[in-house]
Amino acid sequence: MTLVTLVTLAATVAGEPVAVEEVDAREAVLRAGPQTAALPRPGTSEGRQLRRWLTQLLVTERVIAREASALGVTASCAPGLEDVLPDLTARLEIGSIAASALSDPLARALYAHVTADVDIEDAAVADYHLRNPGRFASDAALAAHLRGAARRRAFRIWLEQRRAALVWLAPGYEHPGDPRQPDNTHRH
């Protein structure tokens, strides 16, 4: 890659470019939407963090499309969004980027494919029930709850591994939580 190419790239996914202009366009759509007043001002630390988050979403969408194609997964077999992310806790478990990506039926179909073999043991259901009596009306509801959590965890880990293997991020477009980038505000 030449220096000129690096300047215009926000990232690559399996060597395919994600242009800064794509991040600009995604940000413009957000800023033209109904939530614009809640967004940080452009050029601020928080505004740069928003661009980093949008970059993560763009590369995640590309990874999902690439992996779905490689695995022969199509959107036609996608579960409903409420089946994958039934509540706020589920969205928090899987992370904001994956949760946003799962709004796409292709991503949900890939989720179903990747997590098809994930299950829980009867002992885990019994153990949870002993520690949390009365939380679930039936063992079937509890098993479904635990299975959903296990599947979200499995997909999150799988997606993180695929991004790590396929994605290169340009300086300034690092993950918002990367402690090496200057706008990271997560402190202990």
Structure description:
59% of the residues lie in helices and 6% in strands. By secondary structure, the protein is mainly α. The model has no long low-confidence stretch (mean pLDDT 91).
Oligomer: single chain
Alpha-beta content class? mainly alpha
- Strand-residue fraction? 5-15%
Low-confidence stretches: none
Topology summary:
Elements: H1 3-8, E1 9-13, E2 16-19, H2 20-31, H3 45-71, H4 81-84, H5 88-94, H6 96-101, H7 105-114, H8 122-131, H9 139-166, E3 167-169
Antiparallel strand pairs: 1-2, 1-3
Helix pairs in contact: 2-3, 3-7, 3-9, 8-9
Features:
188 residues; three-stranded antiparallel sheet; mainly alpha; 59% helix; globular
Outline:
By secondary structure, this protein is mainly α. The chain has nine helices and three strands; from the N terminus they run H-E-E-H-H-H-H-H-H-H-H-E.
